[in-house]
Design brief:
Helix content is 32%, strand content 25%. With 326 residues, the chain is of the alpha/beta class. It folds into two domains: 6-152 and 305-316, 3-Layer(aba) Sandwich (Rossmann fold); 154-301, Rossmann fold. The chain has a seven-stranded mixed sheet with strand order 12-9-8-13-14-15-16, with helices on both faces. Helix 1 crosses helix 9 and helix 5 packs across helix 6. The chain is globular and about 60 Å long. The model has no long low-confidence stretch (mean pLDDT 92).
Length: 326
């Protein structure tokens, strides 16, 4: 492969792509996206990709005028065009990987959508996919037959959270049992930053027919600062109920961190009444697309430097931070 990594960003993710390219010390490679009157579209690289190591950024969320399906299809078509035009290796950089929440059957005849999406990427000859803080790392890695790289968001949040909590007694809490491992990873990273032990806890959570239930809180939070850790916030119900449970149990301050601010229409209603001091998210999804009432509650942490560092490492064949195989 010739030269440095070649980085494209499709139009829906261009602002983030430009920040990633700048962090790499360059500019985005040129491409064209064109729509037709009947809703069809095409995209093509305007930069020579032959024998190059190519990275394509596209976050698969449903905001900003394009559905997640449209973003996915455009990304797949563009990857296929790169392979047609001689790219040696193509990596899909998908900071927010849509459809990753449905990774197993929970009802009879359920789909396993994560696996179906993986098959689509494989069908267009994607060499590698790379994402930030996926919903379930094991399910993600098992779904893909091509290389599936993952970057957790712990190191993005530990700095601002450490500053916010100061010398307080801190409990890191998962809002559900399924996220305990994620919260524990964040707790260990924050312990290293603060150089002192921290408490841990989790909430009981059950979801059926779109209704979330379960009120049991495990962990001692009275008189402590609580940091709720999740991978994403969509409707805000999960983080709201966890924050309310902590407040009832006597927590003095409550913060939350989540890599991806998906923010459905009901998120503003839930989060504006939640007893949260602050919610930290990355810009994997443009926060300016979130409902306006949410903006005063949000602290945005840029993920472009971390994505750029990961692209640099992947291009050089180096392990990503936290890669147990490295």
């Amino acid at each position: 492969m010739h030269g440095p990594p070649l980085v494209f960003a499709l139009e829906a993710t261009r602002p983030l792509g430009e920040r990633v390219a700048a962090a790499l010390g360059g500019a985005l490679a040129l491409h064209e996206e064109r729509g037709f009157e009947d809703g069809e579209h095409k995209s093509r690289p305007l930069t020579n990709v032959r024998e190059r190591d190519v990275y394509v950024l596209q976050s698969l969320h449903g905001l900003g005028g394009q559905s997640v399906d449209a973003k996915l299809l455009r990304l797949l078509f563009f990857i296929a065009a790169l392979r047609t035009n001689g790219a040696t290796r193509v990596t899909a950089v998908v900071p927010y990987l849509g459809y990753s929440r449905k990774d197993r059957r929970t009802q009879p005849n359920d789909p396993v959508t994560t696996r179906y999406v993986a098959q689509l990427f494989e069908a267009v000859d994607t060499d590698r996919i790379f994402t930030l803080e996926v919903h379930n790392v094991v399910a993600y890695q098992n779904a893909f037959r091509c290389a599936a790289e993952h970057l957790d968001s712990h190191h993005l949040f530990t700095g601002p959270v450490a500053t916010a909590v100061g010398d307080a007694e801190v409990v890191v809490l998962s809002p559900d049992v399924g996220g305990v491992k994620r919260a524990d990873g964040f707790r260990r990273a924050l312990e290293a930053k603060l150089m002192r032990p921290l408490g841990a806890g989790f909430m009981e959570k059950r979801r059926s027919g779109g209704v979330v239930s379960g009120e049991h809180l495990v962990g001692e939070v009275q008189g402590r600062t609580v940091v709720i850790v999740d991978d994403l916030v969509a409707g805000g119900t999960t983080v709201r109920r966890a924050a309310e449970a902590c407040a009832r149990a006597g927590a003095t301050r409550i913060l939350a961190v989540a890599a991806h601010g998906v923010f459905s229409a009901q998120a503003a209603d839930n989060l504006n009444v939640a007893p949260l001091e602050s919610l930290l998210v990355t810009d994997s999804i443009p926060v300016d697309l979130a409902p306006a009432p949410l903006h005063s509650r949000l602290t945005v942490v840029g993920c472009a430097p971390a994505l750029a560092d990961a692209i640099r490492r992947l291009h050089l064949g180096e392990p990503l931070p936290g890669d147990i195989g490295g």
